[in-house]
Every structure is written in C-alpha cells, then in structure tokens.
Input
Amino acid sequence: MLDLKIYLILGAILFCIGLIGFVSRRNMITMFLSAELMLQGVAINFLAFSRFRGNLQGQSFVLFILSVAACEAAIALALIVILYRAKNSLDVSKWQDLREEDLEPNEDPEILLLDTFQIEPMPTLPVAGHRPAKEEDASHV
Amino acid sequence: MNEQPWITLTNLSLLLGWLAVYFCLPKRISGSSRLVGYGVGSVALIITAIQIFFTYSFNPELVLFCLFSFFAVVGACLMIVAQNPAHGAICFALTITSTGGIFLLLAAPFVMAANIIVYAGAIIVTFLFLLMLVKQHNADLADSESREPFLASFTGFILLGCMISVLNASFSSQSQLGARNEIERIVDDTNKALSLTDLSELKAKVINGDNNVVTRLKIALGGSGTWVERIEVDVQKNGTLMINKSDDIAEIKSALASLASIGNDYLKYRSLLRPSIAMPGNSGADPSLPLDKIRKDQSGRPAMPADNTTFLGKLLFSDQLIAVELAGLLLLVATIGAIVIVRQLPTKVSS
Output
C-alpha cells in the first residue's frame, strides 16, 4: 500500500518545478501557468493529508484554492493584457525600468543587441493609395 | 543522530533531474543540449521508478500512481521548458488531467471534477490569449531565452532535496506513532507499579528480563537526546540508582514517579500535529482523535465517506459557511477588478 510520504513527495516535485518555471521563464503566460502548477502541488498535499487523516477538511480547502486560482487567473490575464498594450511584448524583462532608480539594470547586453536586430519593420502601404483630404475625417473612420 | 550517506539513489535522481531541467531550459546557444536533457531526464525517471517499485508492494494502486505521476511530472517539465507557449499550455493540460487521476486515488472525486472544469476553462482562455498576443512569425526573444537557468534550476532542486530529505527523516522506519504507543504503554505500566506496595510484586511489574521501564523508555525515546538526558539526571541520578539492584521501596517509587512524569511530558509536548480542542465533526473523523483510534477501512487507512459530494456539501455549508461566502465575495471582487483593469479610458479627441 502506498503511504502518505510518496504523495507528499509528488506534491513537492510539482511545486518545485513550478517554482523553477516561475523564476526562470520570461514569458508572462508561461509564468502564470507555472504559478498554477505550484497551486496543483499544494492541492495534492492537502488531499493526501485529508485521505490519510480520514477527514474532509483538506478537500474543502482545495475547493477554496480553486476559487482563489480562478480569481488569480482573471486578474493575471487582465494585467497581461494591459502590460502587452504598453510594451507590445509578453517579455517581463521589458519592465525592468520599474526597479529602484539607483539599482543597476539586470540585463544581458547581448540580449539588447539581438533585440535591435529583430525589430519588425512597420508595414508600408503601396504607392497606389492616396492620402485622404482632411486628417480630421480620417480619425472618425 | 545517525549519519545518512550522501550518495543515495534519491540524491542521484535529484542531481540528474536538475541537470535535465537545466539542459532543457531554453538558452541562447542551445545546440543539442535539449536532447542531452531529455536523455538525462529519462534516466532520472527510470531510477525513481525502480526505487518506487522496490519500496512498495506491487498492487493496482501503485501502477496507477506511477502512471499518473509520470505524466504529471513529465508534463510539468515540458511546460516549463517549452519554447512555444502554446505547446506549454498543452503540456499543462496533460499535467492537470494526470493530477485529476491522483485526486481520484486520494478519494476526492468531486475535487477532481471541479479541478478539471476550472482548469479546462483557464487553459482555453490562455489559448485565446496566446492566439491574440504571441507573434506567430518570428518567435519572441522572451521564449527562446530564460533568465538565469542555472541558478533557477539549482535553487528549485535544492529546495526539492530539502523537502524530500525532511520527509524521509520524518517517515523513517521507526515511526513516531509506534514510539508514542510504546511510551503510552510504559507510562501505564509505571502508574500501575506505583499503586503496588509489595517490593517483589513491584519489581516483577517494572522489570522484564534485562529491561526495566527506564531502559524501555530510553529506547522508545530514540536512545539519545535531551529527553534521555533528562531521564539520566532525574531518574537514575547519573547512573547510581539501579532499579534492578535497589531494595528501598521509597527510592524506587520516587524514581518511577519522575519517570512517569517525563513520559507524560513527552506525550504532552512532543505530540503529533493535531488540534488541541475538539473540532466540529461534520468532516469525518474528529481531527483531535489520535491517528490509531480512527476507524479504518480494509486497506488499513482511515475510512472516508463513500458519498463524497454529500459530505463535502454538508461541511462547506455548515462549518465553513463564512469562508464560502467570503470566497464568493472574492470572486465578485476579482471579476469587477479584471473589468476595471482592462477598460480602456476614452482618449480625448484633439479638437
């Protein structure tokens, strides 16, 4: 028969993998999924204690974790939308200017160099078009 | 304290797992390090599986556990190393369904269903976001480059190693529960002996062959440490008092009284983690009951109610009613907050 320990170890493994993903990845959506993974590890812990104690309070706790995770998902995705609007990227490293003023930026100079090469050229209109007569009219179209 | 060897199979598979995650995490100059990472990771998983199959007896639960936890851990690892976040979301779905299986093994069918429903919704919404925001043609630099992969994976696996070694230490073969039962028996014997008046009867009660109650208590307390030192100081008077040899009944009785008080102190202050007051019993077994007094099912584990959802509903709407209401309020506030955050303020039209 399996004992409590092996379930707790599984929860610990999932939690630590989520932790690694959260601190090392730079895409905001991957970071969000990693946070959800950590919550899954915690939920396995609660359910294992509930099973090996013969008591349902652990399961009710997991239901509260689920509702908090749903709230977190709503807020996090809303934040991702406005952060994407501001910088046109999902990269959290673009927000390093939120650090305190006297701190050095934690940036790899080669990353910045690569970044300048990969700037997408703006789309250009073919010459066949003609400018509208008044700019005020164009803003209402 | 007995010394644990450093080179164990657990530590080896932890090391290999760390290397696998480190090699697989996206880096600027990756080359074939991903393939190396996959190889090392599968070696770590094989070692762990061998360890599990040698530790536990073979039964269907073990097979199901290994299957579900394999897919959960592999899905989680692939999720954090995925260069394309859409692949990451699919691997996360694999992890969620596998943990659903683990939840079923832990006798929580309602939580399993709720978990899959909530996370299926979350994953679909995540997919929508990926379709909206991720540049399809040239991959974002944020996905092909991770921040400090060496330090991050090292930190994570050090934390994992600490947790596993703590779990191994606290679930060691001489379990805490068995020791507590033995100490309870010793205190019981001592109290019975204290009520006797005849010297030979008393000696027959506390001395069992070579072992008297003092030796038994020392063994049950682990053979060393502050509690055993306290026995040596209080009861044996630094070894001069031997219950086997002494013939003074008053001296033996005072020694036994202090022994019983030490045993009672241990049971009181070094208790298992459990609440000190009686908790409401809507949730199944009373949490303040000792673990060995709970009703067991035929697998030797505490019995759980068969109609899980009924009892969960009873618990949520009686003992935890305020928490349920607060969770509902939290959901409402989060919804309003999400709407307020993403609402675009109307831009002023320049006139």
Summary: Residues 176-269 of chain B form one domain. Chain B has 13 helices and two strands. The first helix of chain B runs from residue 9 to 24.
